[in-house]
């Protein structure tokens, strides 16, 4: 249940998997993303509502073949340049995208967590997303005849999240902005949770989400594992690091140096297609 | 304190003035967040701010850099999950004002934040939709804040990320969009509003020192100008003081 | 915002309304139900997942024309005899029913709270409820072709709940088993919340649901307003009262005496049809 | 302590023995709740009990009278909303065993808790479905606890509230029901299981002192009896002691 991070990633994240590393600004599983790069995973389908710096890094390292998402940016700073380079120039490899809105992605996770094949929402009508994304369809209300948007359930092979605490049985507790993490874990076939600490007893906290151990495949203790994002009650967001990423990510060579220095990973091999 | 101000500052002040107390406002990060936080500290103390991270009724004491900074959770009436903020709060039409930015905006206030150029072979790939399509669909009205230029104000957006007034009158109704759509576009030059009949964005107000011709020159279509063109009242010293304390431009 | 209970009921609950008094064993708005009887409301459509003793009383008093529900019983004791008398004998008036399962009712409230006209679930397949309840239909997944159950949104004219606390602005806080109350309030056009107490500041409590004042139409301070059910942190469930109700409810005369003694209401006039 | 026991007691003990540690069990109120609470205090300390009120992983220190007693919330791993317990926990098939009662049960273990007689002109109106239809559909398997009599064990239930094995083999699959359905029916006389081929409930076990003929006499159809009919092991003193402390039958 409680395993070192490298073992957790090795056991649970496989080449070709659909992988969701979720976190809505808060509690982003950055250390786990770096371990995925370090282990050289390939052909991943990455899923996330808000792919940000860590996905920029995983994409830039050439681990991903596809991205399913609704907003890809460096929050509060600007664009993701490795993501851009992959989409605009196919570097280091082409990145296929499946693009939704937040409301659509949130409902896709809800459907996945609920064991139904699709979700219904008021969304997308009139937007050009409808033409580009085959996973946006419509469904008719059998009572009123209204037409609403339908999106298919998301069921990742593995969801990775970061949380404040777990107990020794593997029950996981997170609080603050809890985003979509509960649904992302419940929707997944497997789950890996990095935590700030393991405690004997999870004292209840206002606003907590508790994930019972039976929906958690493995827990890894990684203090600071969400940096440069933050862990409510543990450490603050390192806004300067997000701003600093902009310069690194704009330049392929600077990114290669970052990979070598920070991750100990080789520079990505360009041109390796899906 | 100086009585001068930048064009971004008067844009933010003009946007803040769109918000009234008791209003529920779905706040985007960046300029919308600055404007909403200015409003709540000046004329709209009862403004109820929602960020899409799930923080309902938040009152951050500093300006958040991201949509999910810790200060938003700490000062919120309650924090809900992301599905809940979209399904239980935005979708049923509980939010009065949606505050959006744009990379491109067109004659009918349709908004592009997805891509410049062709979708499958983009010139510039932008972050994408986020919450915007449903904010634009479901809020009772939408206020857009965007710097005015020919690059941003285009005849036709490269990609409709969020529907404004579609191709004109009746389009929102036809699409089943329940909110009124963009009712005001606040720029660094002035304020545009959709013409009640044609839905076409029309210059109704300019900031002090800006002419209608300046605005027309910064617009990629033949911009209509209201006959009774107003001028934005100067920012008050109080507005500027609060704004600068928020943005750190006061050097404190 | 904060009004006496009699005023709250008078202003918000009208003859002919669709009214949900929700509570899942815990925090049942019993005092508000009694006030509805006292004010002699008529032709109500009552909605509740678990109509129990207070609905037995409202139905027995002749206030209701219809009941939308999924389980009507005296929890831990047995059947509801006023409910039975209405259905089996039309006394004091016929009671039309619209019957679902818990999963269906819960999803109907969720759809109502979400502003969509219907909800999708795996449910009802093969049961005889499908034949008796016109608000159970099917819908086809536009992605997989699977057929799932569809149920229409519930949007009561007014939802009434009981909560532990409110602040002076009308924000409402409840905790413990919170059931379906959030969705029932969000789905309703109006809402009335009775509370144990009003406080200056709602200190966060683990497991709390907070209903912002903008979705609460009125608050009434009614300490003990959930008795004989319970209010977590305030008082325990009066199991003996539930057991004692069985004898009262079995007999029309005993019930009439209960109405006179406990509510100050006249005996129901039999035979008054919908 | 007496070594005698009532027929309800051996029924409850036999039901408790169906549950193993680590199992997630969706517990109905009444006999199922008593049996589950007995199991967790004897051979299945890791049993993970869910009640439909939203209490996940609860371990009440006293037997709750209702599905939502305060003790269930106080001792739960977490309390979730009612939509969440049905949509996020029951519907996706996360629950191993659903524990149901019945007013009527038929040859194919279909369950009626809705009405005796005609639906629109009932002889006896019962409480209705509650969570049962979806518990019967979605749990990996279902255990039914019901006292055996010709009134309850009928050829055909008056109303199918919860589907057992429909009209026989292949029916659950045809209906898209994903769990295995009722795998055991525990009564005060013995234990019935669906025949692997015909899905018809078959007597496989009798309690001590009960004969197959006793069970057949209490069944409204021509009850099949397994050739290797087993006898329920006597309740152990420990089982009886714990059960009586739960029900208050120990006078403490």
Automatic annotation (TrEMBL), chains A, C:
This is CoA transferase subunit A. Belongs to the 3-oxoacid CoA-transferase subunit B family. GO terms for molecular function: CoA-transferase activity. It holds the Pfam family CoA_trans. InterPro entries: CoA_trans_fam_I, NagB/RpiA_transferase-like. It comes from the Bacteria. SUPFAM superfamilies: NagB/RpiA/CoA transferase-like (SSF100950). The keyword Transferase applies.
From TrEMBL, chains B, D:
GO terms for molecular function: CoA-transferase activity. InterPro entries: CoA_trans_fam_I, NagB/RpiA_transferase-like. Belongs to the 3-oxoacid CoA-transferase subunit B family. This is CoA-transferase subunit beta. It comes from Streptomonospora mangrovi.
């Amino acid at each position: 249940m409680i395993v070192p991070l490298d073992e957790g990633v090795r056991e649970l994240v496989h080449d070709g998997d659909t992988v969701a590393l979720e976190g809505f600004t808060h509690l982003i599983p950055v250390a786990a993303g770096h371990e995925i790069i370090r282990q050289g995973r390939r052909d991943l389908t990455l899923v996330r509502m808000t792919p940000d710096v860590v996905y920029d890094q995983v994409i830039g390292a050439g681990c991903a073949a596809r991205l399913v998402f609704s907003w890809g940016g460096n929050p509060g700073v600007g664009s993701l340049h490795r993501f851009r380079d992959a989409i605009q120039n196919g570097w280091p490899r082409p990145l296929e995208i499946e693009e939704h809105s937040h409301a659509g992605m949130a409902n896709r996770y809800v459907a996945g967590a609920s064991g139904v094949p699709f979700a219904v929402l008021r969304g997308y009508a009139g937007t050009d997303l409808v033409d580009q994304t085959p996973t946006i369809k419509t469904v008719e209300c059998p009572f009123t005849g209204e037409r609403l948007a339908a999106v298919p359930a998301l069921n990742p092979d593995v969801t990775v999240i970061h949380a404040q605490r777990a107990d020794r049985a593997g029950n996981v507790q997170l609080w603050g902005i809890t985003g979509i993490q509960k649904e992302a874990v419940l929707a997944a076939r497997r789950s890996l949770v990095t935590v700030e600490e393991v405690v004997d007893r999870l004292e209840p906290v206002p606003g907590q989400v508790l994930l019972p151990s039976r929906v958690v495949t493995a827990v890894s203790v990684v203090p600071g594992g969400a940096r440069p994002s933050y862990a409510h009650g543990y450490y603050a967001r390192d806004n300067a690091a997000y701003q600093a990423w902009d310069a690194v990510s704009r330049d392929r060579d600077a990114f290669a140096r970052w990979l070598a220095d920070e991750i100990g990973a080789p520079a990505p091999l360009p041109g390796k297609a899906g | 304190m100086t009585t001068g101000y930048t064009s971004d500052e008067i844009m933010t002040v003009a946007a803040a003035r769109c918000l009234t107390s008791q209003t529920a406002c779905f706040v985007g990060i960046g300029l919308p967040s600055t404007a909403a936080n200015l409003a709540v500290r000046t004329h709209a103390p009862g403004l109820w701010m929602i960020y899409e991270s799930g923080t309902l009724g938040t009152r951050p004491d500093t300006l958040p850099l991201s949509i999910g900074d810790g200060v938003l959770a700490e000062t919120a009436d309650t924090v809900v999950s992301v599905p809940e903020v979209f399904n239980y709060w935005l979708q049923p039409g509980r939010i009065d004002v949606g505050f959006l930015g744009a990379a491109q905006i067109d004659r009918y206030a349709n908004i592009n934040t997805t891509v410049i150029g062709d979708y499958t072979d983009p010139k510039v790939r932008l972050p994408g939709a986020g919450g915007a399509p449903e904010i634009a669909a479901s809020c009772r009205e939408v206020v857009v804040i965007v710097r005015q230029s020919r690059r941003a104000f285009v005849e036709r957006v490269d990609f409709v990320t969020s529907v404004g007034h579609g191709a004109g009158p009746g389009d929102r109704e036809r699409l089943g969009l329940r909110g009124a759509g963009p009712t005001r576009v606040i720029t660094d030059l002035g304020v545009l509003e959709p013409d009640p009949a044609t839905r076409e964005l029309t210059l109704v107000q300019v900031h002090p020192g800006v002419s209608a011709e300046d605005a027309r020159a910064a617009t990629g279509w033949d911009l209509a100008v209201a006959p009774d063109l107003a001028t934005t009242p100067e920012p008050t010293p109080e507005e500027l003081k609060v704004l600068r304390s928020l943005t750190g431009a006061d050097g404190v």
